[in-house]
Structure formats: C-alpha cells, structure tokens
Amino acid sequence: MNKALIGKIVNGLLVVAVLWVLINRLPGVIENFRKQNQPAPSFAVPLLDGTLFESEKTGKALVVVFWATWCGPCEVELSRLQKLIDDKVIPADSVLAVSSLEDRHLVQTTVDQRRYSFLVGVDISGQVAGLYGVRATPTTALLDKNHQLTWITTGLSPLLEVKIRGLFK
C-alpha cells in the first residue's frame, strides 16, 4: 500500500471515531443543557467527617462534582478545583465532591493521598448521582446561591475554570 492510501484510511477511521463519540455523547449533552437554569435537585449526603451535608441549607454558590476514586479524568478535574482553592479563587467549603457507589474507607484513603481540602461526600447508594442524572464521571454541576443549577457538564471541560470564576465573582 502507498502512503497516501494509508493516510486516507487513517483519516477515515478518525472521522468515524469522532462521529461515534459525538453521537454517543449528544443525548447527555442535550439532557445537561435542558437542566440548566432550573432549580437544582435537593439532596443530603454524609461527609467524610461524619456530618450531613444538606444542599438547600448552604445559601451560597456551590460546585458539586460527581467522581470516582478510579477515574483518571476525575483526578484531573478535582486537582483543578484544588488549585482554585489553593489560589484563593473559591473557598474550600464551596466545593463538594460526591463519590457514588464506593467504599467510604477507599474514598477517605484517596482524599488523604491527594490532599483534597474541599468537602467530600459518600453517596453509597448512588441516589444523589441519580437525582442529577449522572451517566459518567466526572460530572460537574454549578449551583448559584439561590440553589439554581446554572451549568452542568460531563467529562473534562475546558470551560470549568471560566464558569467557576463567573459564579464566584
């Protein structure tokens, strides 16, 4: 085979792969878009420190990230949030990372190893993730001080920092 034919085959496969990803992600993107600017689902989740976090009682803007200890993209997004906290862009108590369907001890060990300073909830039943229609991790939801869902996204987002800075300005 010549190089031109191989190049066309590779380009064709890349186009098919990109289309496949877009087609499979499109329903979730549309669903997330429809949730925006609506009242956020209210929930209560136990935190690693033993207290109960109740979303409606915060009275301030909140970043909620649904994550998993084994999820590489989650580690990237949570590290970005930790940097915003370290840089004093947002307060640590305005970020809630909710781990679903995972062992509390595993979550605590992961949080300790990565030195996260934000709130971490353990949703053992997956009920809270279900309220937000989480299909994959990381899923990040921004709630304003009036408990309105202003933005929700799944996966790594290049807009994360811009959206958070806008929420906390």
Structure description:
With 169 residues, the protein is of the alpha/beta class. Helices cover 43% and strands 22% of the residues. The strands form two sheets. Strands 1-8-7-4-5-6 form a six-stranded mixed β-sheet. Strand 4 (62-67), helix 2 and strand 5 (95-100) form a beta-alpha-beta unit. The termini are far apart.
Can you give me a brief rundown of this structure?
This protein has 169 residues and is of the alpha/beta class. The chain has helices spanning 3-35, 72-86, 104-114, 127-131, 160-167, and strands spanning 38-39, 44-46, 52-54, 62-67, 95-100, 119-123, 139-143, 148-154. The protein is built from 5 helices and 8 strands, in the order αββββαβαβαββα.
User: Strands of the biggest beta sheet: in what spatial order?
Assistant: 1-8-7-4-5-6
Order of helices and strands: HEEEEHEHEHEEH
Rg over CA atoms, rounded to whole Å, is: 18 Å
Give the percentage of residues in beta strands. Answer: 15-25%
Gap from first CA to last CA: 58 Å
Structural class: alpha/beta
Taking pLDDT < 50 over at least 5 consecutive residues as the criterion, the unreliable ranges are: none
